[in-house]
C-alpha cells in the first residue's frame, strides 16, 4: 500500500467525539458512565488503527464497523454487571444465583438502616458503646434455645473462627466419612490449616465408631467436629445417638463438641413436606457445645454464618481478633434481624421468606403457573420449536442437604437440532433478565418452582431474538 492511500485510510477512522455523540453511544454512557465508555472507544480506535498499520486489513473504517466493535466490548461489560436473573434451574438454593432472596420486609429494613445513622454499636439509653450482635442475640437464642450466639460473614468464616478460637495449634477429630463429601468449595483440610488447627481423621470412609474417636483422643486434641455432608442422610434416631455419643465422649474428656450443620433450618422441614433435617435446637439439646450454619441456605436470610452454643465458648470466640475481621456489616444485621422476627410465627415465615415459600410450593400450584406461561411461550416459539408442559423434579440445593427431589413442573422446549436448541437457550440468556434453565434430554427445561414474577417473565419474551432461526 502506498503512503497516500494508507493515510487516507487512517483518516477514515471516525473521531472519538463523533462516536461519543451517537445516540446509541450516549445511551451506553448514561448506563455505564463516561470514562468507561470513552476508554472502550479509544480501545476500538487503537485496534482499528493497528489493524490498518499492520496492513492485514485494507478497508475504509466507517461508523458501522466502529460501532459494532464497540458494541461487543460494551456487551462484555454488561454481561459482567451484577443483575437479576430468572432461576428456572429447579435448584431453589443455588449458590451461583446468590442463594436465598430476601423478603420485602428485610429489604425495607436494609434500606432504612443504610440510609440513616443507626444504633449499630450504641446503647441509646445508657449512652455507651453497644454490640452489633445485640440486635439479633435475644431472638436467635429464643428460637434455637442456645445460651449465646454470634454471627459472622458466612459459615466458612464461622467454622474457621470457632476452630481458631477453641482449638488453635491443636488436633481436631473428624470422621473420615464426613471429609470426602464436603465438596470443592468448602474443603475441611484447607479450612483447618487456615484456622491453625491440625486435622485428625478418624475411622474409615463408611464406618466410624465411637471407639475410633475415643482411641484418638490425646493431650494434643482440642475439639471434636461433626460436619454435615451432602449425602449423609440424618435419620432422626441414629443421628441423635451419634450426636449424643460424641457429646458424651467430648464431655468426659473436657473437649468442646462442635457441629457444622451447613444448612441449619429454623423450622421443621416436615411442615414443607420435606424430609426432616436436624434443627439447631435439637442438636444443641443433644449435647453439641457449638454449632455453625449458613444464614442464606435453609434459614432464607442474608449471607452470614451463625454460631450458637455455650456462653463461655461464645465469649472466647468473641474475644478472638479474627471475630473483628469476620464481623457482619450493618445491612446483613438489619436483614437478618428482620428474618428472625418472621420466625416468631411459623406460618408467616413460610409465607414471607421466599426460600421457604418456594420450597413449599406444591406441584399443582406450579402446574397452574406452567399453564399460564405456556400459551405465550408456545405462541412465540411454535414455528421453530415444540413446547410442552412436563413433570420434573426440583431440588433444595446448597450442598449440605441430602439431594432430595421435590415434584415440580417445567416448560420443555425441543428443536430439530441440538445446535439450534443451544442457540435458542443462548437467546433466553441474552434477555434483559437472563432466563437460566437446564439442558436435559436434548431439551431446554424451565422448572417453574422459582418463578414468582410471571408478568415480568412474560413481558420480556417478545424481546427474544428469533431472527437467527429465519430461513435465509
Ligand atoms: C455450605 C456449607 C458450608 C459453607 O457455608 P458458606 O455459608 O457458604 O460459607 C460449610 N459447611 C457445610 C457443611 C456447608 O454445607
The whole-number mean of residue pLDDT values reads 91
CATH topology of the largest domain: Aspartate Aminotransferase, domain 2
**Fourth-level CATH superfamily of the largest domain:** Type I PLP-dependent aspartate aminotransferase-like (Major domain)
Rg for CA atoms: 28 Å
The unique ligands bound to this protein are:
pyridoxal-5'-phosphate
Q: Strand pairing plus helix content: what structural class?
A: alpha/beta
- Largest sheet at a glance? 7 strands, mixed
Oligomer: single chain
Specify the number of helices.
20
Can you count the beta strands?
16
CATH class of the largest domain: Alpha Beta
Determine the fraction of residues in helical runs and give it as a percent range. Answer: 40-55%
Count of structural domains: 3
Terminal CA distance reads 37 Å
Give a verbal description of the structure:
- It is a single chain.
- By secondary structure, this protein is an alpha/beta fold.
- The protein folds into three domains: 3-80, no CATH class; 86-97 and 358-469, Alpha-Beta Complex (Aspartate Aminotransferase, domain 1); 104-352, Type I PLP-dependent aspartate aminotransferase-like (Major domain) (Aspartate Aminotransferase, domain 2).
- It has 20 helices and 16 strands.
- The chain has helices at residues 3-11, 16-21, 23-32, 34-53, 63-80, 104-115, 134-144, 155-167, 188-194, 210-216, 236-252, 280-285, 311-319, 321-326, 330-342, 346-352, 354-360, 363-381, 418-429, 454-459; strands at 86-87, 91-93, 122-123, 128-129, 148-152, 171-175, 198-202, 221-227, 257-262, 290-294, 305-309, 386-397, 405-414, 435-436, 438-440, 443-447.
- The strands form four sheets. Strands 5-11-10-9-8-6-7 form a seven-stranded mixed β-sheet, sandwiched between helices. The protein has a five-stranded mixed β-sheet with strand order 2-12-13-16-15. Strands 1-14 form a two-stranded parallel sheet.
- Helix 6 (104-115) runs antiparallel to helix 15 (330-342).
- It is globular.
- Residues 231-241 have low confidence and may be disordered.
- Pyridoxal-5'-phosphate (PLP) is lined by residues 154-156, 186, 227-228, 260, 262-263, 294, 305, 399-400.
- Pyridoxal-5'-phosphate binds at residues 154-156, 186, 227-228, 260, 262-263, 294, 305, 399-400.
